[in-house]
Amino acid sequence: MNAKQRAQELFERHYGALPEGVAAAPGRVNLIGDHTDYVGGFVFPAALRLNTAIAYRRSAESNRVCAVSEALADKVDFGLRQEGVSGWGGYLAGIAWALLEAGFELSGLELAVASDVPTASGLSSSAALEVAMARAWRTVDELELDDVNLAKLCQRAENAYVGVPSGILDQFASSVPAVGQAIILDCRSLDYQVIAIPADWTFVIVDSGASRQLAGSAYEQRVKECAEVARQLHLRALRDLQAEQLLKLDGDLLKRARHVYGENQRVLEAASAMKAADIVAFGRLMSASHASLRDNYEVSSPTLDRLVEAALAFEGCYGARLTGAGFGGSTVQLLKRGSEDAFGAYLEERVPSARLVARI
């Protein structure tokens, strides 16, 4: 059964009734362009065929939310205006907070959650949960909220309520999905373009087996370092960095700035390569991105590096890189379509802890 079916079944089993509906949102893989969204730069994500689903109905208690999850034993119960909800329920409560702050009126809900998106794997399971929750309220309460503004409110919930200083990448890719296609997004203007992935390309996503956690991690430190570079150089954001300004930096701040500057350029070049169906160029940019994330941004790990090295040794792998924030999680590889099974068998033999979880 898929996530929507499992969410409905869980709802019926737990509440003894049918839900009013099921809302869902996909996880995402970022093909290239990591740690550029929170500086207003460019990113290049694609939605996965893996969803988080929430079965819902209005609650008899108009100001409360009750939720159960197939994957987690703890039941969530909170007031619509309750502060400080922790754990996975904090993502749901954060959406309520952001929608109420934006002036929307909300109904209390009973919820059941099921997901195909692996958690702590860099595939945006938290954003998929947030967007699915916002979509449920949008339907129930007939909210006038388009997909872009829904993504912005979900990002606000994660930043201000959950406490993760993320950019718009994850929520946007989940809210404005184009399954089987990629999106190049300007994270400052939110202008975006959908680009068809060439029919003979396939991106394979592999879970390294090393989980990651953003809140309280070095992720927040990287955000602060980027802000400090912008402050020192009198920039609106690090996205505005010019090459010659790198000469004014040194140490860790120089390395962080080198990554951001180079990564923004790589995203734009990758978009051109995909439009031209130049698989060699696109793969080379992916591998260069991983090297920069490893050496300049220092967010890779020995496990991720071994996985990328093994992938690139496979004949027919054009590029490989960590995807998402790093510190563990997943990698994405570019192959010619038809070689996925051979690649999976090859990788299973060389990196037993890795698991192929999705393909585009």
Detailed description of the structure:
The protein has ten helices and eleven strands. By secondary structure, it is of the alpha+beta class. It folds into two domains: about 190 residues, 2-Layer Sandwich (Ribosomal Protein S5, domain 2), CATH 3.30.230; about 160 residues, GHMP kinase, C-terminal domain (Alpha-Beta Plaits, 2-Layer Sandwich). The strands form two sheets. Strands 1, 2, 3, 4, 5, 6 and 7 form a seven-stranded mixed sheet that branches. A four-stranded antiparallel sheet has the order 9-10-8-11. β9 and β10 form a beta hairpin. The mean pLDDT is about 95.
Write a concise keyword list for the protein shown above.
Alpha-Beta Plaits, Ribosomal Protein S5, domain 2, 360 residues, alpha+beta, seven-stranded mixed β-sheet, 10 helices
- What's the Cα radius of gyration? 20 Å
The low-pLDDT segments are none
What name is given to the CATH topology of the largest domain?
A: Ribosomal Protein S5, domain 2
Helix and strand sequence: HEEEEHEHHHEEEHHHHEEHE
Please give the oligomerization state of what you see: single chain
Number of domains: 2
- At CATH level 2, the architecture of the largest domain is 2-Layer Sandwich
* Largest sheet, strands/sense/barrel: 7 strands, mixed
CATH class category of the largest domain: Alpha Beta
The helix fraction, in percent, is 40-55%
The total count of helices amounts to 10
Morphology: globular
Helix- and strand-based class? Answer: alpha+beta
The end-to-end span amounts to: 20 Å
Beta-strand percentage? 15-25%
Average pLDDT rating: 94
Number of E-state strands: 11
